[in-house]
Specification:
This protein is of the alpha/beta class. The N terminus is likely disordered.
């Protein structure tokens, strides 16, 4: 990880996008192969890697996923043709931090990259999510008994908002606003999808959640200690809580 006073570096692989230079305050480097990307990771320790992908490039996704597993702070974002939605889903399933359609407004692209790079030095440092499970706001990841569990940017921001307000029901619309998503990504349905993904990472049984629970008619609530006295008193005040 680079110095916290050093502006983040953006590495692009493929056709470099235009329009992000004005507000990207750090350095930029363009690479043309996986070997050059690995060298850039060693030399520049970039905050974000932006990879231009076409359907013909999907074979490099496993290599990108392996790179992510070697670094706690690296973020990789894919940029694909607008109609390649299946490729974007595949990139997310492989663990990339975001997957965006080419042709989006330059300001939005820059904003999404800045969000992916954000998070180092967060004053919260560690937040309890469940027994033995913490949200590391410096690494922007979960830690279970010292082992790192990577989170996508929206998963991180969603869990951060819930962990900062434990045992408190938060409305879906509020969660969509607070995580800084765009209009399409900020729908309440998208929040539900990311909650399902988070449950797969934090719950002993994702089909019967006890930590990230649904509050009927409201939204979601994080319960770090579902059997504790605070949980019982909060439930009596906040209303009905269901595991679905």
């Amino acid at each position: 990880m680079g110095s916290p006073n050093r502006p983040p570096t953006l590495v692009t692989w493929g056709d470099p996008p235009t329009g992000i230079e004005p507000s990207w305050t750090g350095e930029r480097r363009v690479v043309g192969s996986l070997a050059e990307l690995r060298a850039a990771l060693r030399i520049d320790a970039p905050a974000v890697v932006l990879v231009a992908l076409s359907p013909a490039d999907r074979e490099i996704l496993p290599a990108l996923a392996r790179l992510l597993r070697t670094s706690e702070s690296l973020r990789i974002v894919a940029l694909t043709p607008p109609d390649a939605w299946e490729l974007r889903l595949e990139a997310l399933q492989m663990g990339l931090d975001d997957a965006l359609p080419a042709g989006m407004p330059p300001g939005e692209l820059d904003g999404r990259l800045q969000l992916a790079a954000r998070g180092l030095g967060d004053p919260d440092v560690r937040l309890v999510v469940a027994p033995g499970l913490e949200l590391d706001t410096d690494a922007r990841a979960l830690r279970r008994d010292g082992h790192l569990i990577r989170l996508r940017p929206m998963e991180y921001r969603l869990l951060l908002e819930l962990a900062r307000h434990p045992r408190r029901p938060l409305e879906r619309r509020r969660l969509a606003r607070r995580i800084g998503s765009t209009t399409a990504a900020g729908s309440t349905r998208t929040i539900d999808v990311h909650v399902r993904w988070l449950r797969e990472k934090i719950e002993p049984d994702p089909h019967h959640p006890v930590h990230l629970v649904t509050v009927r008619g409201v939204g979601y609530q994080l319960e770090p200690d579902p059997g504790g006295p605070l949980a019982a008193s909060e439930q009596s005040v906040n209303g009905s809580v269901t595991a679905r």
